[in-house]
Amino acid sequence: MRRSCLYLLTFLSPAIVFSTACFNTESPPSERARVTSATLEPGQALTTCNRPQSCHQGFVCTQGGHCVDPTGQVSATAALQADFDNLPTAVGLGVPYELPPNARLRLDDPDGDGIALQVTNPIILQGQGSELVVENGVIALRISAPADWSSVRDLSFVPTTPSQPHQGIGIDVRAHGLRLDNLFFDRMGTGIRAHSIVDGQHANLNIQQWSRLVFWECHEHAMHLAGGDTNAGLFTGLEVRAGNGILDSSFLGNTYISPTINSTTVDALTLDSSASSATVLGAYTEINAPLMRANSFHDLHLGGNAIDRLDSEGDRIGRHHASLRFRDPQTGLRVRIPGASHAALAFHHPNDGEWWYLRYFDEPSRMMWGFSYRNTSTSAYRWTGHQHPQGPALYQAGTPLNTTLAMQTLSSESSTTPGGPPAHAPALGKRAQTPVTPDPNWDGSEPPRSEDPYFDITPDEDAFFWEGMSPP
């Protein structure tokens, strides 16, 4: 504190009057910073500021009015947390908050809870190209439930010791509908964690929207989602380079558009839930990454080179691959198209222990369509339609069909490659024609038709499940 005097000059006719007023004033911000320079060290009190020039020795003033070191040498944790705790009440999606531009802001764990910064109010956090330099084992940023629909963008997360494996987390998602965009995670333990239950506390993490994220050598996971309420997210333009990939253990799955995976260790993109209905569109993986894996019958994979490098029970379409799967909710009957690499169709009844495959038998003595057991080519079976205790129907070895018509068709179309399936595939929904070799159980009658071609053949029908080789 210093004493200041104000001298007043007053013109009063017929004399000039001098007056003096003295009062106490606070030191200028620059002097105050010099006096309290010790408070800039980690663990000490905060230094406040009201303009960029009011911080000394290269420190800068944050939006919330605290001095921070933009070079990453001195912790900025206390200053940034004070800013977040004093944000005004959000009117809409969140309070806009801008970090100092192009700064390195060091984050540690002063209170020992394992978390550097916590956001507990809706925020629109603009990184402005800055880096959060995170000490080992620390969660850099936790977005808590009261901050639902917050957003974070244009920001990097890097370790203080790049040469050592980091055990911390870049962003710990504990809020619903968080928006993330244009973020870089460099050599963290896990780039982003989104678990619906952490330390026994539940959070709703559905409807996440994350885009343009780059993960570089995050050795535990680039992204790890888990729990019953981490579903229905939209993730676009993810790039994972080295380290480990993405593990999605959400219950019902999320949507991934154009993820790129390169040089990862255990996971490329792994969809770990058997109940998932995830959609993956245009995934790209380098050959030095593991196979993409998905454990659900309901997942859908569309396009991208990763179709060739996918281990999944789900549907896949693209790069000359097609695998569509259906399940009857009442009977449990499952149908797959194609059934296997050489099978056009496969089906599995819940009371039957094995899959049955409709495939073309391309053998000199037998060129025909028929069912095979376990997709073996030792014998062809036909479906009689009779019930039996172990399965939905009785399968018997079929009588080889007269292949004259098929061979004539191939010859007429100038086919130079012998064998293979007939040139014209059977049309769905058409009734079976009388086999060339008569079936003693077939009486030539037709059952009533339904509008759905898949139900034209009834369970008690005595007929071949066979379509003639002639064009439809």
Give your account of this protein's structure.
This protein has 472 residues and is mainly beta. Among the domains are: 62-307, Single-stranded right-handed beta-helix, Pectin lyase-like (Pectate Lyase C-like); 344-386, no CATH class. It is built from three helices and 37 strands. It has a 20-stranded mixed beta sheet that branches. A hairpin with a 2-residue loop joins strand 1 and strand 2. The longest helix is centred in the first third of the chain and has 9 residues, at 77-85. The protein is elongated. Residues 1-44, 388-393 and 399-472 have low confidence and may be disordered.
Task: Please sum up the structure shown.
The protein has 472 residues and is mainly beta. 5% of the residues lie in helices and 39% in strands.
Specify the CATH homologous superfamily of the domain at 62-307. Answer: Single-stranded right-handed beta-helix, Pectin lyase-like
Tell me the name of the CATH class of the domain at 62-307: Mainly Beta
Report on the biggest sheet: 20 strands, mixed
Can you tell me the overall shape?
elongated
Total number of β-strand segments? 37
Strand content: 35-45%
CATH architecture of the domain at 62-307: 3 Solenoid
Termini, distance in Å? 100 Å
Organism: Lujinxingia litoralis
Signal peptide: 1-21
Region (Disordered): 409-462
Protein name: Right handed beta helix domain-containing protein
